[in-house]
Fold:
Amino acid sequence: MDEKLINGFSKLDKHQKIEWLQKYFLKDNDDSVFQEFWHPEKEKQKLIENFSENTISNFVLPYGIAPNFVIDGKTYAVPMVIEESSVVAAAASAAKYWADRGGFFTTILGVTKVGHVHFMWNGTYDQLQDFVPDIVQKLMEGVSSLEENMKKRGGGIQKIEFLDFSFCEKNLFQCRVHFLTCDSMGANFINTILEKFADIIENFFVDHSELPDEKKDVDIIMSILSNYTPECLVRAEVRTPIENLGQFANGMMAHVLAEKFCIAVKIAKHDVYRATTHNKGIYNGIDAVILATGNDFRAVEAAGHAFAARDGQYRGLSSCSLEGDMFHFWLDVPLAIGTVGGLTSLHPLAKKSLDILGNPGAEELMRIIASVGLAQNFSAVKSLVTTGIQKGHMKMHLMNILTSLHADDESKKAATLYFESHTVSYSAVREFLLNLKGIVV
Ligand code: MEV
Structure:
């Protein structure tokens, strides 16, 4: 057996795991970085590492604030967790820009989530129909205690349907269940109900003595929520008279910006290459708030990209129109998120993020996150059709290079001035410092 393969890795403690890594996978002998990022308080470290498995350290990301978000007339400072430079600055700049023009407006277009039990039964869809009312009654009775709390909060099971999936596989059916999960993301609730439903469906036909034996068996394939949530949807929009847009870089006039901007958004509706980048920009903002509030960014991204391709072609998620003299820009985005349960209440910083946002319910958080996505998209597209994004990026990049070369504040100032009119590259910055001080550390 390859000596790098191991049994029982999970049983090792953190130190042993690091030692093992060092023995087989680390080139240098320095493992200090793992320990440097352990939380100094044992309890807090335990809390963090218990979120996952086989943990040896904590991976730290910047936690920033984008202030000045006016959403539906309320002002927010939005916490964002992201490693990419310029994203928080871009969100903050768009937030302020739109705060001066009335802010963002949002509409909740739906809050329904779905889950499925897939099963095989040796009958036709028509035959199954005869049993559906009875099955549904048994399903609802079977989960009444599991559903009780959610029902008290105004949520629970909304609808149960049985669909014919024989086009996919002979004798395959789907039980589709629609849920409301209130302020929780609801994954645990939905999956628990679905697995209970699976048990009930599996045993439903056994007692039907009128059925031949081959129709008494049900084979459950799987039971799981869907991360595709086109009915858990929010719209964020901004609107202003075109002349109010102001003047842009290099003296670009408002109506020129508006037209170019709308064309850029239109390109993302038609070209998958641009759509992917366009949506990536939107998720720069969305993911950052999702992370800061302890929500599941993989679920939110998966839903968003599936939604972007809902008519068969992957398209940009935002839309823009010039209606008479009005500039209108909006984003419809599925957001299945929660403000209670899961990491939202366990992770101290996620909890703090919700505090900063005024402890919103799930719907309010959907409104906030969609607005940040729209703001991010506005900033990116505005930059693209005016100055290009490199100007802003390069400023940050320059700072990173200067820091990595241990430049002092005075040198940083001089470099910032110099590189306003020169192209930034690692070697150019190095040479500049060398000429300036005669040394590079
Ligand atoms: C970079 O992270 C995001 C952008 O590429 C988005 C866009 O092109 O719209 C700037």
Remarks:
- The radius of gyration is 27 Å.
- Residues 84, 277-278, 280-281, 284, 380-381, 384, 389 surround (R)-mevalonate (CB under 6 Å).
- The chain has four domains: 1-60, 65-109+232-388, 113-225, 393-437.
- DSSP finds 16 helices and ten strands in the chain.
